[in-house]
Amino acid sequence: MTVFKNTEQELHDFRLRLSAIGVFVLIFFGLLLARLIWLQVYKHADYAAQAEDNRISIVPVVPNRGLILDRNGVVLARNFSAYTLEITPSKISGDLESVIDNLATLVDIQVKDRKRFRKLLEESKNFESSPIRTRLTDEEVARFTAQRYRFPGVEIQARLFRQYPLGQVASHVIGYIGRISANDAEKIDALGDDSANYSGTDYIGKEGLEKSYEKYLHGTTGYEEVEVSAGGRAVRTLSRTPASPGNNLILSVDIELQKVIEEAFGDRRGALVAIEPATGDVLAYVSMPTFDPNLFVEGIDQQSWDDLNSSPDKPLVNRPLSGSYPPGSTYKPYMALAGLELGKRTMTSAISDPGFFFFGNHRFNDDKPGGHGHVDLHRSIVVSCDTYYYQLANDLGVDAMHDFMKPFGFGQITGIDLEHERAGLLPSTAWKASAYKKPEQKKWYAGETISLGIGQGYNSFTPLQLAHAVATLANNGVVMKPHLVKIIEDGETHAKTPTVPKESYRIPLKQENIDFIKQAMVGVTTEGGGTGVSVFAGAPYVAGGKTGTAQVVGLKKNEKGRSVYDSKTMAERHRDHSLFIAFAPADKPRIALALIVENGGFGAVAAGPIVRKAFDYYLLGKRPADKAVESAEKTDADTIHSAAGVKADEESAGGPKPGSESPGNTE
């Protein structure tokens, strides 16, 4: 009886446990079924999309960068395709240096390639590929392809590269591109939705037009939908949205004129800007010395970078845009025009020049010992009489000069289509009051006004501003904004959109006064005693111009109280700057320019021959003489320059004031 009860109890417990297990299994399978229904019914769309995303990879298609051409269609910046050897650090097996050493047995990898690669790694993310070598030869591609299985994480990619076929010519205009840095990436991220346009892009404009027209040159990124295997290999392309190429830039620059001018400068430092007065087209934009922008495309090597930065000639400085210099006597035509317009002088106003001007106890010397004698307003420009403009500056006053010169663009941003333009300095009493801290420094002293009349003192302008001012004068006071890009051409349709602006404004000037000043500038190049007569001797066209020589440092005086200028004993970088402004043909100007040769001496000697070569080419199609003749001309000029013991050019007096900006500063 007891045995039967125990058996019945065990059977009952077994059934209970079995029921519990059954309930548990039922609940478990119920949960699985519910989860299955949830996944298959309610979340089907979401997970289907995720599965599709895992199967399909979105690959950006980088657009072709737009071309840059001169006004005649000469290509200044272009693209070409080449192979690169790239490493993705997160995908390699083994030590990175060992991988590179093994790659070097197949592909030529130099020390500079390794240094550049390490620098790129510092700026990139570990999962991004970085090039260890660019522009592989076909033989190198074949050798690596045969051994590719040995190098996981190393790939050969076909990429577009930027090239500047003319090398150093017009490098400060064109600029260059470079790999996107961390700072560039931050700026791109700040674009918001537009930042997606840089997906897959490795390069961006860094300087010059490449930078200021980046949004036009870059183009629009396309995309490919690519089906990939579980291992991440591309199987097939499902769809493609093509990239739109960047727009082409057609410049106003005549690159042949640019070459002529750069060759005329030789190894001298300086700047020149030539403008078409009627349109504001910049015909030539020269900054000397130049540099090769091709060095920067793939990341400049350290040695080249050190050479460019340590050079005392500062080849990376964009002198027309950011170099600031005193204008010297090139300022006098505008002073004369101010005298006429403001009623301080008439066309017949004359002085008897004794060779100096006294203000208080200070003597301001003229360029010519003994003076120029009887000098009227016309003749004051032709022979560049300092004494005349000392007196005129004193009569006008600094603020009247400031207000008159400002509309011509002196000390103002011109708005040219390049970044980092410098404003220069057009002094006034308000400027000085705000520029200095000490009360005695804030005050404007009447004696400081005198040297402003001959383009010295606090005056400091860029070569671009000087060119803009002479173009405005040649254009009878109609101000045209200077620009380098003449047309933007659509990269796909080739539709051309002109960028030439309409006139900015007109300076309210009397035409008879403008004509008078322009005729006096013609006298500079044609009349006896004119400071620029030798420059245009025998020219089949008539040009108007004005020479200028600007002091860099103050000069010692001899026993007669005159400043002594001896280029033989003076350090080369302490010698005067040579300047020239000009326009031609005089009756209907097609070209106006301003240039400076740093430490070149007298305006007609160093700067003048460059002006003549520029005008001869642009107006006549005449190229410079052979190198032997050019060398002889330069030797003659140097001889004339060295022969001057006592400074006898028209711009000798009125050096920079204590505490003012160095007049020749291009930093």
Outline the fold blueprint:
Layout: H1 2-42, H2 44-55, E1 56-61, E2 68-69, E3 75-87, H3 96-103, H4 111-123, E4 130-133, H5 138-146, E5 154-163, H6 171-174, E6 176-179, H7 182-189, E7 203-207, H8 208-212, H9 214-217, E8 222-228, E9 234-241, E10 248-251, H10 255-265, E11 270-275, E12 282-288, H11 302-310, H12 319-322, H13 332-341, E13 350-353, E14 356-359, E15 362-365, E16 373-376, H14 377-382, H15 386-396, H16 398-405, H17 429-435, H18 439-442, H19 447-450, H20 463-474, E17 478-479, E18 485-489, E19 496-498, E20 505-506, H21 511-526, E21 544-550, E22 577-584, E23 591-597, H22 603-620, H23 627-642
Parallel strand pairs: 2-10
Antiparallel strand pairs: 1-8, 2-3, 3-4, 3-5, 6-7, 8-9, 10-18, 11-12, 11-23, 13-16, 14-15, 17-20, 18-19, 21-22, 22-23
Helix pairs in contact: 10-22, 13-15, 13-21
Can you describe this structure?
This protein has 667 residues and is an alpha+beta fold. The protein is 36% helix and 19% strand. The chain has 23 helices and 23 strands. Strands 2, 3, 4, 5, 10, 18 and 19 form a 7-stranded mixed β-sheet that branches. A hairpin with a 6-residue loop joins strand 11 (270-275) and strand 12. Helix 10 packs antiparallel against helix 22 and helix 13 packs antiparallel against helix 21. The longest helix has 41 residues, at 2-42. The radius of gyration is 36 Å and the shape is elongated. The protein starts with a helix and ends in a 25-residue tail after the last helix. Residues 558-562 and 626-667 have low confidence and may be disordered.
